[in-house]
Amino acid sequence: MAFLTASARTEQAPFFTRFFAAIGNGLVAMGEANPRLRKIEALQRLSDEQLAERGLRREDIARHVFQDVFYL
Fold it and tell me: Looking at the record's lineage, which domain of life comes first (predicted)?
């Protein structure tokens, strides 16, 4: 096992930081592009009265949007 000097570790740190930041940013972008997330955001913007007209309560929005995927 090779040990790195302090200067070698600092030279590699920005690469790893950028690498993992890119992975994280990609995962966030995938999540934000999900149409179900957009549906949840649209329903969250409605007033409680508008949700009641649709037969929903604010705490049931996620369950409603994911009802075909998860049994909650």
Answer: Bacteria
Q: Which amino acid is at 46?
A: L
Q: Rounded to whole angstroms, how far apart are CA atoms 31 and 3? A: 38
Q: Retrieve residue 64's tokens.
A: 């409603």
Among residues 65, 68, 67, the alpha carbon closest in space to that of 36 is found at 65
Prediction pTM value: 0.58
CB-based contacts of 61: which residues, under 8 Å, 6+ apart? 40, 43, 44, 51
Angle at 34 between CA 33 and CA 38, to 5 degrees: 90
1 pLDDT exceeds 50? no
